[in-house]
Amino acid sequence: MEAKWPGDVNKKQVLSVIDDKGERMVRMANLCVVGSYAVNGVAALHSQLVKRDLFPEFDALYPGRIQNVTNGITPRRWLKFCNPDLSNLISEKIGEQWPAQLEQLEQIAQYADDADFQKTFMAVKKCNKQRLADWVKSNLDITLNTDAIFDVQIKRLHEYKRQHLNLLHVISLYQRLLNEPNFDTAPRVVFFAAKAAPGYELAKSIIFAINKVAETINNDPRVGDKLKVVFIPDYRVSMAEIIIPAADVSEQISMAGKEASGTGNMKMALNGALTIGTMDGANVEIREEVGDDNIYIFGLDVDGVTERRENGYQPESEYHNQPLLKAALDSLLDDTFTPGQPGLLRPVFDSVMTSGDPYLCLADFADYVRAHNDIDRDYRDMSQWARKAILNTALVGKFSSDRSIRDYVNNIWQLDAVKR
């Protein structure tokens, strides 16, 4: 450090392994960079933010040390095992080597406009939706319409992942179905599955709110099968293996800059779901692979989030300027979803209105609704929807864990393959 920045005490304080401001503590992240010969993010955007925002000084001190390895998923479990009918359909068209060479899936793209292939592909999806619907009926006693859009958000419950943004959209759909005689929407089933950290009180309040909203909507005869909400308890891998093949829409709606790189987006895209998401984590790279026409991007990007905050973001202005949003939020204060017990859902209201909306749910709400309107429109043209779904399966071969491990081997570990 002295050689690069002579006499720069501030740089030494920033990069020091020991934090001596107040109680002396070891900075584990700094120690990691100093003690490693390579450090990597797990998505291109994540790695860029690590270099630009987290460790700019280390990036200057050790050029090339901070790298990127976008993570991946194993196609053996997340397609071949959990979706055997789609796996067999793919193998009939391109052979059986694709699970070990996932980039071969690109050959499926040539069938995206083939009417017979579209029909078969969507029949597989329908069977997977029926399997999930049967599980829901047996375990939760909720009857689902498998012609509906299966709209899925499955991930750890956290404010930055914004399950409450999804919930506000669900409430807005419910209110429009009740109050707007001319409002027409494709039938939709919104699935949530998530666990919350034991001490994370607000996360548990969001889970409670989702379940109370679901209870009201699912038992309202005025809505019928136009809208259902399902919170699947005890989320786990074996449950994901049923949900993921059934998904039509994959919710990847974290505030831009917060999701390092989840893999649910990869799993659902591989199984023919279309992503609605922010420009965050691996969503950015999925968009690059599948193309703008086959993904639904909305909301602020990383720079937009920064700019909005620097300009003095006021959630109250969003609340007062968006009637649809205001009505949804207000319903959390009365007893719409908690008959005879108004205020039970106030913690979710307060999280965005009195706590400053730290993850900008309200700022992104209008564009989120716009993206969902696009989904609703496109789903009504089943041929075009099938085309988009097929292209998602065909074009996400990059996200195999085999490629990810090869990147580590070649660029991080610098190992030679064992000859067999």
What is the class of the largest domain in the CATH system?
A: Alpha Beta
**Ranges with pLDDT <50 over ≥5 residues?**
none
Strands of the biggest beta sheet: in what spatial order?
7-6-5-8-9-10
Helix content estimate: 40-55%
Number of domains: 2
User: Terminal Cα separation, in Å?
Assistant: 46 Å
The helix-and-strand class reads alpha/beta
Number of strands: 10
CATH architecture of the largest domain: 3-Layer(aba) Sandwich
- Rounded to an integer in angstroms, the radius of gyration calculated over CA atoms is 23 Å
Instruction: Give the amount of beta strand, in percent.
Output: 5-15%
Assign the CATH topology of the largest domain. Rossmann fold
Largest sheet: 6 strands, parallel
Mean pLDDT: 96
The CATH homologous superfamily of the largest domain corresponds to Glycogen Phosphorylase B
Contiguous helical run count: 19
